[in-house]
Amino acid sequence: MKTEKTVPELLCPAGDLTRLKTAVQFGADAVYLAGKEFGMRTASNNFDLTELKEGIDYAHKNGARVHVACNTIPHIDEIERLPEYLTALNDIGADAIIASDLGTISLVKKYAPKCELHISVQSGTVNHITATEFYNMGAKRVVLARELSLEEIAKIRDKTPSKLELEAFAHGAMCVSFSSRCLLSSYMTGRDANRGDCAQPCRWSYSLMEQTRPGQYFDITETDKGTYILNANDMCMAPYLDKMRDVGISSLKIEGRAKTEYYVAVTANAYRGALDSLKNCKGEWQVPSWVTEELNTISHRAYSTGFYFGRPENAQTYKDAGYIRDYALAAVVNGYENGMVTAVLKNKFLSGTKLNCLEAGSVPFTVETDALFDQDGNRIESAPHPMQIIKIPFERPIKSGSMLRMKAE
After folding, report:
1. Residue predicted with more confidence, 4 or 41
2. Cα Rg of the chain (Å, integer)
3. Model confidence at 310: pLDDT above 60
4. Could you write out the DSSP letters of every residue in 227-239?
5. What's the rounded Cα separation, in Å, for the pair 156 and 151?
């Protein structure tokens, strides 16, 4: 079996320019994003061409790559607008374009020859024949279907050209559909999931009704509110990154282009720490405990390992939408002066609140607020106003952009 022992690339989501910069600052090797059209997440702000150029320049200046998603299934009026957009991506220096539709793939090769072609998860690649055929069509990378086990990925790696890169999801929300291709949203709401506008009906509560008994509902759940029978748990493969590396995965993808800046910072920092630990490990590797603790500070559903170890067990939460929210963002650091950390307030807290600091490249640490001051240096007992400038005594500077968070109430 051919395996790559090189630590995989960390590929993080960027829903807008702020989140792109956050991902890079907190350790992403590459980011993936989309323009105002042709991407699978219309809930994100996404990028116009001016923002894309700024984001690409920022990423390149800091040693990161930018992959642009053009992975919708475009209708005829949309695909006629695509050549102009692809030409622009080619000219502003996008590193890769992610596509799934065969027509889009052909246009990428024609109008964006400087960009790598990456085959989207939407293509549902689950075998080596398909992966190799995409390689023969010019693909540098294939994003593998989520429904594969590690054992199957190892076989695909063994039977595909060594120059073909394999990308796989390591963290984030899971769909009940096959490789994210779903008709449920379009059928129920008219919002097409395959064109980036999913309404997430898999997260809704359902009841059972028999055809000849309209209005008579039957309990199929554990609660009296219905069942969340389609509500898949989130994926978290942080404890198994060595196994993902050993089967030859080239890039680990974090799901979440519609998620917050805080989510991007936490996941990028945690997985960067885990991958660096793996790279430096000389013996049997275990994920650092702080990494798993960090991944519990973001809003998430119960974690699972998806299909990587076979058919999922305990892969859905039936009683509710399943979100766990343990921490809230208190403030974002923007400077240090005269022994004081200055920060912009995001959520109210009282003097004496014990804060936890997320700083790029560091294991999270505690910041006490026994003394709290406003921007004029006046002692205050609480910080109640969003966007208020506050000052907290601390023994050393904390990097700008670091996030101070507190236990959620």
Report:
1. 41
2. 23
3. yes
4. B-TT-BPEEE-GG
5. 9
